[in-house]
Amino acid sequence: MTATTLPRRAGSGPRQWPLLGNLPAFARDPLAFFESLRDDYGDWVPWALGPQRNVLVSRPEHAGELLGAVEGTFQPVELGWAFHQLLGDGVVVATGDDWRRKRALVQPAVRPRQVRAYAATMVERADALARSWRAGERIDVHREMAGLTQRIAVRTLFGSDAAGREAPISAAMATAQRELGAEFRGVTLFLPPWVRTPGRRRMREAVAVLDREIAHVIREHEAASAAGAERDDLLSRLLAARDEHGAPLSRKELRDEAITLYIGGHETTSTTLTWAWQLLSGAPGARARLTEELDRVLGGRLPTYDDYARLPWTRQVIKESLRIYPPIWLISAVAGEGASIGGRRVPAGTRVWISPWSMHRDPRWFPDPEAFRPERWDADAPHPVHEHAWIPFGGGPRACLGARFALVEAALVLAVLGQRFHLDSGSERAGTLPGLTLQPAGPVRATLRSAGGEDPGTPRS
């Protein structure tokens, strides 16, 4: 479907069920639902999620306007009981002065200078994984990438003291991710917090594990700090942070920010890399250009932080993967008094939604949107991308703080592994599972092929 053939019925919206609104269609397939709203009803579509009044906007300039007005005439939306259980009152959830304080405390820990310090860990862990792989071996790409980014996240966030705690943290996070997605797509989203369901019980159990493990690591860091030990991990920087009144983050605040940073450094990057490998497997031309760039720039050595700027095609592969499979697949804010978008008044209390998934796949902004084309991002590309048409990390004042960390990590890991292996998925393609982030619906299997044509060893047993 081209930009000129998109059907439009401006001002209308989909038919709604009594009490449920459009919840059945949304729950069945939220990604397809938002694409259908865009294609069938236009760029401003009223719809209902249960009793909630909603509008979907699909023009980049309207997305930019909304993102820029959050903490002004729009406010972040509370996304339900499960979401709050996992993220607590962290910087992603906080609003107003509380959000400004927490952002000021957390942001210095993920600035480019600090990300530079973590690059060596990213490369070291990726190199260890590459050394364990053997040509001819069949792997679950998502599991391998999740394990790798988990080890990177635990080391950069918690330090070496957390080694061995990865397994319970990972298992609990997987459960929380699954239950959060199930609640968000179902009627339990509208149930009061005191209502108990099997899914909520599993969520509580998973969060209890996360709380216990992170509390243990925080105590170890506090003891080490009291003993005068110096550390370079993210948690140590958060422990040392002080607001304008000289006050530190509380234990609860440390827990909430640790969970937030863990998700940004692990969940987001592991899925981005998984999709990137799958997309490269089906695009031999793009894969050949990646091999050429890695050979030319790195010459067989491991990359460093400075190589991130020297690997434009590698970065474009990541950027295009984020376009096709944005980890943040849904963004929402609630209108306050006097809110408007595109000169159109938005009644107070209305939730305005942006779907990065549907915007990234809109042929008006990305010709042939289903195609994997990293060349879209060439400096001299014939179709410049609108400023707000690519929003995998949100935007405006509440843009994801860990975006730089995730982009650098994904590119460096791709470079380390891509020098040695092709990941051949054949014709297999994984479906999508919208949860807290956009996850593969099942295993993403691939056969390891040596990038150099020789077999670097025998498969693991």
TrEMBL record:
It holds the Pfam family p450. InterPro entries: Cyt_P450, Cyt_P450_CS, Cyt_P450_E_grp-I, Cyt_P450_sf, Cytochrome_P450_Monoox. Keywords: Heme, Iron, Metal-binding, Monooxygenase, Oxidoreductase. Its cofactor is heme. Gene3D superfamilies: Cytochrome P450. GO terms for molecular function: heme binding; iron ion binding; monooxygenase activity; oxidoreductase activity, acting on paired donors, with incorporation or reduction of molecular oxygen. Heme binds at C400. It comes from the Bacteria. Belongs to the cytochrome P450 family. This is Cytochrome P450. It comes from Streptomyces subrutilus. The lineage of its organism: Bacteria, Bacillati, Actinomycetota, Actinomycetes, Kitasatosporales.
